[in-house]
Amino acid sequence: MGYAKQFDFIKFVVPAFLQTIEWQDVSWGNDACPRFENEDLCIAVWVAEHEPEDREIDDMKEYTVCRLILHKNDCPTLEDDDLFSTDSINKLLEWIELEKSIQTIEHCITVFNNMTTPIEECQDSLVTCLTRLQEMQKELN
Known about the structure:
The protein is built from three helices and five strands; from the N terminus they run αβββββαα. It has a five-stranded antiparallel beta sheet with strand order 1-2-3-4-5. The chain has helices spanning 3-6, 89-113, 119-140, and strands at residues 24-25, 35-38, 43-47, 63-69, 77-86. It is globular, with a radius of gyration of 17 Å.
């Protein structure tokens, strides 16, 4: 349905990256705030009101990340425990980049454990991961 139709979108500052093709707006009016899912990363990001005093849940941060569980032939569900929460868009972006790197490394480990996958696929994934980590390191310096 979209967060703008479900919520008073003036109170919510939804980052531009969450409004790209990689992220699906699955916001629903019964939720406390808008939610965006990325099935490739298996995560969902909740975006609460920018001003803490406007938030429906008192101790909620502006951005909260949950694990998205994909089911065969069914709708994805969310794990109950939060993976990460912050009021900083920069910290959220850093966390998502680290999550991408972790998933790349986990994929490579799986490839090495199952050598039916071509080794080139793992090499490409590792190069991508290394490049991402190097870029993050430069940004933090």
